[in-house]
C-alpha cells in the first residue's frame, strides 16, 4: 500500500529568513521535499489547512515575535493534524537542558537544537521521514484498512496467538448474531461450534501452527443455536521473532439450496475439506453442457458451468505430466478409502501440488538466529517487496567494462615468479592467495591459461591461444577487485576446484569433452560483474537488473548473459567463432545451465535430485556385483543426459562453495572476505532504509564462527557428503571436519572473531 505522495510536504514557520530557515529550505531541496515558508501564524495555519503538510518546523527561539506554543496548539486543534509531525527549533544554550514536557503539552512531536548547517538540517529531515513521518503514515494506512474491514461484507475475525478474539467486524457480528463488541476478549473456545470436531481441529491446527493458511467448509452455530454453513480461510500472521502473533479468519456464508454447487464455487479447500467436496466437484466435471438448459439460465450460472466444462477438458487431455497422473491415481483411491486413509492422502496431495518438491521447508528456530538469517537470506527468491516510498533505486551501477583489448601475455611468457605460484595448481591445497598477490589481483587470466591448456580447450573450440588470452582478459576485467569476496580471485578459485573435480576418475568416466569444456567456461564466468550484493538486495533496491530479470535469479542470469555478450562482441575474444552451430548450441546450453545452478534458492532441489537420481541408484547397482554387465550398467545409468546434467550442477555448486573444505588458513581467509561483503551490504541497507536481508551480519555484533557453523550445517555437509560418495574426496572431507571443529571451538569460547586472541 502506498502511504503518501511521492514528495513530502514541509512547512517552515520563521518570522525572518535567517540562516536556520535557509538551512532547512536548502535541506528540503536536497531531500526532494516540497517546501513552503510563512512568517505569520495566521498565514501558517491557512497554508497548512490548504496543503496538509507532513512536517511543520516552527521557530521556538523568539517567543516575543512568534508564540510557537499557541501556533502548535492551534494546528493540533484541527482535525487534519493527527498524523502531522511538528518540530520546535530551540536555542542551543550552555544552561541545563530544558524539560521536554512543555513541548509535549503544546503538541510538538520533537525539538531541534538550532544548527543552520545544511547537512544537519538534511539529517534531521531524513530521520523524520524514516521515523515519525513513516510511523504516522502507517497509522493513517491502518485507519484506512480498518475502515475497509468495518465496511467489508465478508465476516472477519482476528484472534491473538492464544486464540482470544481481538477484533470482529460488523459483518461477523451480524452473521453470528452477536451485538457490537460482545465477542471482544472472549476465548475462541467460548464461541459455540458444531462441526468443528477433534479431527477437523487437528487438521486445521496442523496447517496454521507451521504458518500455513487453511481454508475449507464447516458448519457452526450462531448465538441463537441455528446452524450455518461457512467457507472459512484462517491465515496465521507472523510477527517479531518469526512467531505467530495473530490469526485472521475470513468467513463467507454458503447460502442456497444446492449445497454441493455452493461448495464447489468456493475456493477449493485444503485439508479435510478436500475430501468432503472432491466427489461433488468430480461429478460436476463429468457432466456435459446442456445447451437448452444454458439458454434459460442467468449469465453467472452459464459462466460457472463453462468453467467446470473447461476443467473437464483439462482433465481429459492426453498430455498429462507424470505428476498429474500420480494425483489422479490418488484422487481415485480416495473415493473408496476409509477416513484415516483419505486424510493421509489429502496431506500427500497437498505436498504433490507444490512445485518445489525437492526443497525442504525450514521451521523457525528461535535459539538459532544465525541459521535463520543465513538460510533465509541465501534461500530468499528475491521477491521481497517494499511498499510505496520504500521502493528506492539502488545507486550501485551494474555495467560491463568494455575496455580496449590489449594483447595479453602468452602462456610460455608468464613471469617465473607467477609460474612458480602455479606449480601445484593440480593439487587441492593450491594457494590461490599467493597467485592473487603475485598477479596484483589478476589471477584468473594466468590460472585460466594453464588449466585450459591442460584440458586442451583451444583444440576443442578450434580457437587460437591469443583469442583465448583475449577472452580471459575481457572476462577478468569485468570482475570487480573492490569486492571483498566476489572478485576474480574467487572465480579463479572456483575454476581451480572445477578442474580438480574434472580430474577425478569417476568424473572422467562419466562426462564427455563438451561437458568438461562447459564446466570450465561456466566456472570462469559464473560471477562476472558481481556487484558484491545479493539477489535479495537488488530486488529490494529496485535495481535495473532486478527489473530486467523479473526478480528471478537476477545475478545468475546476468552472469550468464554478460559472459556471452562479452565473448561475441569482438572477434578478437570470440572463442566460439569457429564452432559448428549445433556444437555451439549444446555447449552454450551446458554453460548457462551450470551458471544458473549456482543460485542458492535451488540448492536443496539440486542436491536432493542428485541424491535420488544418481547416488541411490548407483549405490544399489554397486551392491549387486554378480552380473557381468555390472560396469556397463553403471556407466549407462550415469551417462544419461539427465544424470550428466545433475552431475555438472553438483560439480559447479561444490566448486563454488568449497571454502569450508579448504585447509584451515584458506578457510579463515575466505570466511573473512565473505563476512566483510555481507557487512558492507548490511551497512548499505540500513543507510538506504532497505530491508536488512541478513541482520546477523552487523559488523558490531556478528559472530563469524556461528555464521560459519550454520553455513556448514545447512548447506555444506549434506552436499559434500553426497558429492564425496560419488567422487571420493577424503582430503576435502577431512578439511571440512577440521574446520567445523575449529569454528565450534571458537564459538564454545564465546568468541565472535576469526581467530582466538594471541597467547
From TrEMBL:
InterPro entries: HD/PDEase_dom, PAS, PAS-like_dom_sf, PAS_fold, PDE8-like_REC_N, PDEase, PDEase_catalytic_dom, PDEase_catalytic_dom_sf. It comes from Echinops telfairi (Lesser hedgehog tenrec). Belongs to the cyclic nucleotide phosphodiesterase family. PDE8 subfamily. Residues 410-750 form the PDEase domain. It is an enzyme of class 3 (hydrolase). Its EC number is 3.1.4.-. PROSITE patterns: PAS, PDEASE_I_1, PDEASE_I_2. The lineage of its organism: Eukaryota, Metazoa, Chordata, Craniata, Vertebrata. Keywords: cAMP, Hydrolase, Metal-binding. Binds 2 divalent metal cations per subunit. Site 1 may preferentially bind zinc ions, while site 2 has a preference for magnesium and/or manganese ions. NCBIfam families: sensory_box (TIGR00229). Pathway: Purine metabolism; 3',5'-cyclic AMP degradation; AMP from 3',5'-cyclic AMP: step 1/1. The gene is PDE8A. This is Phosphodiesterase. Residues 148-211 form the PAS domain. Its cofactor is a divalent metal cation. Pfam families: PAS, PDE8A_N, PDEase_I.
Amino acid at each position: 500500500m502506498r502511504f503518501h505522495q511521492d514528495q513530502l510536504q514541509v512547512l517552515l514557520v520563521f518570522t525572518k529568513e535567517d540562516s536556520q530557515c535557509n538551512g532547512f529550505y536548502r535541506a528540503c531541496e536536497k531531500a526532494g521535499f516540497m517546501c513552503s515558508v510563512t512568517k505569520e501564524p495566521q498565514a501558517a495555519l491557512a497554508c497548512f489547512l490548504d496543503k496538509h503538510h507532513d512536517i511543520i518546523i516552527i521557530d521556538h527561539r523568539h517567543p516575543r515575535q512568534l508564540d510557537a506554543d499557541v501556533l502548535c496548539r492551534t494546528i493540533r486543534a484541527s482535525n487534519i493534524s493527527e498524523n502531522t509531525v511538528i518540530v520546535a527549533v530551540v536555542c542551543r544554550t550552555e544552561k541545563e537542558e530544558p524539560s521536554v514536557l512543555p513541548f509535549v503539552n503544546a503538541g510538538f512531536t520533537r525539538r531541534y537544537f538550532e544548527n543552520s548547517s545544511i547537512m544537519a538540517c538534511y539529517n534531521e529531515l531524513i530521520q523524520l521521514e524514516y521515523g515519525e513521518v513513516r510511523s504516522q503514515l502507517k497509522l493513517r494506512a491502518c485507519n484506512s484498512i480498518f475502515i475497509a474491514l468495518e465496511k467489508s461484507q465478508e465476516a472477519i475475525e482476528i484472534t491473538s496467538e492464544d486464540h482470544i478474539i481481538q477484533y470482529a467486524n460488523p459483518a461477523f457480528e451480524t452473521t453470528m448474531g452477536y451485538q457490537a463488541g460482545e465477542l471482544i476478549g472472549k476465548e475462541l473456545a467460548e464461541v459455540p461450534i458444531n462441526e468443528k470436531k477433534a479431527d477437523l481441529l487437528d487438521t486445521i491446527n496442523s496447517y496454521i501452527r507451521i504458518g500455513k493458511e487453511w481454508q475449507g467448509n464447516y458448519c457452526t452455530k450462531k448465538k441463537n443455536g441455528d446452524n450455518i454453513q461457512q467457507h472459512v480461510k484462517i491465515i496465521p500472521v507472523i510477527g517479531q521473532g518469526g512467531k505467530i502473533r495473530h490469526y485472521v479468519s475470513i468467513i463467507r456464508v454458503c447460502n442456497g439450496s444446492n449445497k454441493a454447487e455452493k461448495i464447489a464455487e468456493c475456493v477449493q479447500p485444503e485439508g479435510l475439506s478436500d475430501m468432503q467436496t472432491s466427489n461433488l466437484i468430480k461429478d460436476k466435471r463429468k457432466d456435459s453442457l446442456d445447451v437448452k438448459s444454458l439458454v434459460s439460465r442467468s449469465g453467472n450460472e452459464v459462466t460457472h458451468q463453462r468453467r467446470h466444462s473447461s476443467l473437464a477438458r483439462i482433465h481429459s487431455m492426453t498430455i498429462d505430466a507424470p505428476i498429474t497422473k500420480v494425483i489422479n491415481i490418488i484422487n481415485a483411491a480416495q473415493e473408496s478409502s476409509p477416513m484415516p486413509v483419505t486424510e493421509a492422502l489429502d496431506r500427500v496431495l497437498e505436498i504433490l501440488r507444490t512445485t518445489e518438491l525437492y526443497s525442504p521447508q525450514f521451521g523457525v528456530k528461535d535459539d538459532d538466529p544465525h541459521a535463520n538469517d543465513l538460510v533465509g537470506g541465501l534461500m530468499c527468491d528475491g521477491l521481497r517487496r517494499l511498499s510505496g516510498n520504500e521502493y528506492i533505486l539502488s545507486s550501485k551501477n551494474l555495467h560491463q567494462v568494455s575496455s580496449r583489448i590489449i594483447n595479453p601475455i602468452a602462456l610460455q611468457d608468464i613471469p617465473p615468479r607467477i609460474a612458480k605460484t602455479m606449480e601445484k595448481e593440480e593439487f587441492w591445497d593450491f594457494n590461490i592467495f599467493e597467485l592473487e598477490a603475485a598477479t596484483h589481483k589478476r589471477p584468473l587470466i594466468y590460472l585460466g591459461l594453464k588449466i585450459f591448456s591442460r584440458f586442451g580447450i583451444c583444440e576443442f573450440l578450434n580457437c587460437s591461444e591469443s583469442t583465448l588470452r583475449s577472452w580471459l582478459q575481457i572476462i577478468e576485467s569485468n570482475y570487480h577487485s573492490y569486492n571483498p569476496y566476489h572478485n576474480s580471485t574467487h572465480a579463479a578459485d572456483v575454476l581451480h576446484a572445477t578442474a580438480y573435480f574434472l580430474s577425478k576418475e569417476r568424473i572422467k568416466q562419466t562426462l564427455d569433452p563438451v561437458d568438461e569444456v562447459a564446466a570450465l567456461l561456466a566456472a570462469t564466468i559464473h560471477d562476472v560483474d558481481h556487484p558484491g550484493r545479493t539477489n535479495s538486495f537488488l530486488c529490494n533496491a529496485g535495481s535495473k537488473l532486478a527489473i530486467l530479470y523479473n526478480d528471478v535469479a537476477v545475478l545468475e542470469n546476468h552472469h550468464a548473459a554478460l559472459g556471452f555478450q562479452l565473448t561475441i562482441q569482438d572477434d578478437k575474444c570470440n572463442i566460439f567463432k569457429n564452432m559448428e552451430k549445433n556444437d555451439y548450441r549444446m555447449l552454450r546450453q551446458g554453460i548457462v545451465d551450470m551458471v544458473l545452478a549456482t543460485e542458492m534458492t535451488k540448492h536443496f532441489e539440486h542436491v536432493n535430485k542428485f541424491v535420488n537420481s544418481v547416488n541411490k541408484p548407483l549405490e544399489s547397482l554397486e551392491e549387486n556385483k554378480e552380473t557381468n554387465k555390472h560396469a556397463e550398467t553403471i556407466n549407462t545409468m550415469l551417462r544419461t543426459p539427465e544424470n550428466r546434467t545433475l552431475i555438472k550442477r553438483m560439480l559447479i555448486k561444490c566448486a563454488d562453495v568449497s571454502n569450508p573444505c579448504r585447509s584451515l588458513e584458506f578457510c579463515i581467509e575466505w570466511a573473512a572476505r565473505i563476512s566483510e561483503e555481507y557487512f558492507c551490504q548490511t551497512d548499505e541497507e540500513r543507510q538506504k532504509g532497505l530491508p536488512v536481508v541478513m541482520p546477523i551480519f552487523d559488523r558490531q555484533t556478528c559472530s563469524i564462527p556461528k555464521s560459519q557453523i550454520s553455513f556448514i550445517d545447512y548447506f555444506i555437509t549434506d552436499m559434500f557428503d553426497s558429492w564425496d560418495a560419488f567422487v571420493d574426496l577424503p582430503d576435502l572431507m577431512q578439511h571440512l571436519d577440521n574446520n567445523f571443529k575449529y569454528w565450534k571451538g571458537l564459538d564454545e569460547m564465546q568468541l565472535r572473531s576469526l581467530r582466538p586472541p594471541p597467547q
